């Protein structure tokens, strides 16, 4: 399989990531502390990466000081990084945009050119993953009628002030698009001023992954990292650096609507923090506070009814996405969203056969967490 490692970044996508980083009031020093606790202070050569990231963050905080209120309004969320926030709704922004934009003007032209009925459809589909709120097929937006979108919004289990915010963005789309595009243009301009720092980070990314691919089979590597058996895409795979989301690992299979036919390269976005001192296969320390934090994360996931039901259904058999959606009365978009969280916590294994993705519970990881709880809470092994 042909695999290409790209140094070039998408400044618009990185700008969106920067806005959400600032809106969530995230800090790179806190991220480093979490990684150090969880993995035992792995960074040696990677310390220079933190230095460059901190430079970007500090400058961004100063530049956007007067925009804090708007950043919080559009991008502030307590959910995970992949959740759809108000700012992404305003721009109909998906994690993997099929459209590529050369600049903000091209993005604006694209948004201005979307017909009303297509806008309603796209907005409704994104709304179904807003802040990771789960939905079921009976409430799913299946039409491009604006009243159907509003009706769905009113039934969502979110605070009333959130409903009014989203409704306002939906009704007054041009006004909100203009505001978010202004923030995005500002973010892209800031990142362009850090081209030298970003070039340093992406050059290291290319060197690391090109050397890695000479030594290892990429499919075997991914299976070892997260238990996913990737498909043999005839168009190949492209690895892109993720700068602002520096510890990201995101996969996207470029398939037709039938879910079977490849129509382009598979896309992998890898955080620039990964390197020789912080391999993606780095395992957690099991007896320190880092593992305790991981256990807390897993217990939080298990407390979610839908995630628990998914793991229950696949605990001794495999199932694919649409099968889970039908059995558990969820949308396929909701199943995909839950699976992203379960995959990130290494609670599911993934196998691709005949261009279909099958999920099964990672019983070893689950047993390890439950044993840890048993030992800590009951003093029994």
Please describe the topology of this protein.
Blueprint: E1 3-5, H1 11-23, H2 28-39, H3 47-63, H4 68-75, H5 86-90, H6 104-112, H7 116-127, H8 146-155, H9 160-171, H10 173-193, H11 195-215, H12 218-226, E2 228-229, E3 237-242, E4 249-252, E5 266-271, H13 289-302, H14 305-313, E6 319-320, H15 321-328, H16 332-344, E7 348-353, E8 356-361, H17 363-378
Parallel strand pairs: 1-3, 2-7, 3-5
Antiparallel strand pairs: 4-5, 6-8, 7-8
Helix pairs in contact: 1-4, 1-10, 2-13, 6-10, 7-8, 9-10, 15-16
Describe this structure in words.
With 381 residues, the chain is an alpha/beta fold. Helix content is 55%, strand content 9%. It has helices at 11-23, 28-39, 47-63, 68-75, 86-90, 104-112, 116-127, 146-155, 160-171, 173-193, 195-215, 218-226, 289-302, 305-313, 321-328, 332-344, 363-378; strands at 3-5, 228-229, 237-242, 249-252, 266-271, 319-320, 348-353, 356-361. Strands 1-3-5-4 form a four-stranded mixed sheet, with helices on one face. It has a four-stranded mixed sheet with strand order 2-7-8-6. Helix 6 (104-112) runs antiparallel to helix 10. The chain is globular. Mean pLDDT is 85; it is low at 132-138.
Give the oligomeric state: single chain
Mean pLDDT: 85
Q: Helical residue percent?
A: 40-55%
Contiguous helical run count: 17
Q: What pattern of helices and strands is seen along the backbone?
A: EHHHHHHHHHHHHEEEEHHEHHEEH
Computed CA radius of gyration, to the nearest angstrom: 21 Å
Tell me the total number of β-strands.
Answer: 8
The computed structural class is alpha/beta
Largest sheet: 4 strands, mixed
How far apart are the first and last residues' alpha carbons, in Å?
46 Å
Low-pLDDT windows of residues? 132-138
Q: What proportion strand?
A: 5-15%
Shape: globular
Strand order of the largest sheet: 1-3-5-4
